Every structure is written in C-alpha cells, then in structure tokens.
C-alpha cells in the first residue's frame, strides 16, 4: 500500500488560498486536484480518477480543505466550477462524484471534450487504433492481447458526464483564471494561470517527462505538438513563481524545468537515430530505450518510442524499408524503420 499523502496549501502573491488534494488514481500513481476559493469562483481543478478509494480521497480532501477556510465553512456543494486540464481518466474520472454533490459547471478544452461526454465511444475507437498501431510496431499477438486488456479494463470505470462549457467558448478566461491551450500530452491539454501560479496538469512535471503518444493514435498529441507547446508555455509564463503539477512535486524554476525536458527529448531522438542504423521495429526500440518493462508500463514504453519515431519520420530522417510488403499483402504489416 502506498503511503498516504497529506493536504497541502499554497497561496498566490495576493494571498488567494490553493489547496492541493492528493488522490491515489491507480495503485502507486498519485495525482492532485486543486481547490481554489476566491469570491464568486469556488473552483476545483481536476478530479482524480474513480478507482478504488480515489473518490473518497477527493471528497474527503475537499471537506478537509473547507475546514481550513478562515471565517466560514466550505463544503463541496459550494463549488461553482470544475476545470479539467486534460482528457485523461486520472484527471477527470472523479466528475460523477462531483455531479452528485454539486451544481458546479464543468469545463474542458473542446479537443478533449468527447473523452468525457462520449467515453465508451472514445474507448472503443481508441482500442482499434491501438490494436493497429501495435501490429505495425512489431508486438507479437500474445503480448498485443495482454496490452489491449488495459484499455478494456477501463470500460466500467467512468460514467459519461455532460460538459457545461469549453474553454474556447469563454475566450480562454474564467474570471481571474487565464487558460492556454498546450497540446501534446493530450490533444486538448491546457495550462491554467492564476496570478503568479501555473496549474500545469501533466504538461510539465517536476521529476519525470510527461508521457508522449504518436499523433496517429491521438490527434493533436505527438512530440511535435508537445515541443511547440513547451515553447508557448515558456513565452506565456513570465512572472510565474510556482508551477503546480498533476503529479509529483511543485516546480519553483519553470524555465529550468522546461529546458531540462527539451534536452531529454533531444537526447532521446539521438538515441533513436543511432538505434535505426539498421532496420528494426518500434517494439524493439522501446526495449532499447526503457528495458524489459511489464504490464501497463510496457504499453507506455511502446507509445513513447513511437512518438519519437513519428517525429523523426515526419522530418524525413527515418524511412520504412519494407513498405512493399503492405502493397503485396493488402493488410496491416510490421513496419521496419531505418535512417534515411
């Protein structure tokens, strides 16, 4: 069992209180929801998942935070808005519990909206995309079936929730909150600014680099979008003194962290080019980059490796050397990549 994490409090430069609510979204994976209490805006940023005790931790965290508010008691029914940073289930999975207890208006970027409003549809369509991708990546049939089970496992984990507003519809502003579209980790990922504090979601993390998937799996994802978004966030975040992340610790030097993430990806791209001195597969590359991973980590490794291959392939630095097999068979085939 993972050690229990405790509620933390931060303040903006003018003293607006922000409560960081820890939630164990999945075994060993802790995420954060953030409660901001400011006049007419009683805002929850992200909700964790609905797995196991995650809902209990979310509700309990909001109640605990309410007890820390000076001069009044705050309860979950007082929420006015929920702002979702991106359409991954460890960040929006707690929405049904909020809907049951509050009339808060739910918002998300329009490119991730269907993840919440048409969850079953998205899961099934993404499952087919992923199946095709794993074939091209060179994953064997037994391993492929094991990896696909993780997507099937999600089917009972979320009830579709209606969204009340998209960030575009409110001109990327909600009262004192400013919103910037930062695609890459997901197509509709946003970062949210409140005075000198930035809520990063998973776009920038303090101890790990955010997971990447190829754009063929998820439009507006992909390493190209991600790196461009890092540049955009860096330009947009002048005066930020603290970045609060969806996972791990807060960031006190945002430019330095952005620079470190870019450097890591450049180094990984060099490794990918070196690996493809002779024809090989994305599956083999993932083992070269990340070792022999198991379970869900193996799926993450193959997706991450593929995002880097896609980036180089788009720029003509890699080629598929056995493309004629597709013409002969008329069916899906394993892609062998090599440096151009």
How is this structure best described in words?
- With 340 residues, this protein is of the alpha/beta class.
- The protein has two domains: 8-118 and 160-257, 4-Layer Sandwich (Metallo-beta-lactamase, Chain A); 126-152 and 276-339, no CATH class.
- Helix content is 39%, strand content 19%.
- It is built from eleven helices and 14 strands.
- It has helices at residues 54-66, 89-92, 95-101, 113-117, 119-137, 141-152, 223-236, 254-275, 282-290, 295-314, 324-329, and strands at residues 8-11, 17-26, 29-38, 41-45, 81-83, 105-108, 165-166, 173-174, 177-181, 190-194, 197-201, 242-245, 318-320, 337-339.
- The strands form three sheets. The chain has a seven-stranded mixed sheet.
- α5 packs antiparallel against α6 (141-152), α7 (223-236) runs antiparallel to α8 (254-275) and α8 (254-275) crosses α10 (295-314).
- 41% of the residues are buried.
Main sheet properties: 7 strands, mixed
Please report which band the strand proportion falls in: under 5%, 5-15%, 15-25%, 25-35%, 35-45% or over 45%.
15-25%
Low-confidence stretches: none
Question: What class, by secondary structure content?
Answer: alpha/beta
Spatially, the strands of the biggest sheet line up as 1-2-3-4-5-6-7
Looking at the overall shape, the CATH architecture of the largest domain is 4-Layer Sandwich
Helix content: 25-40%
Total number of strands: 14
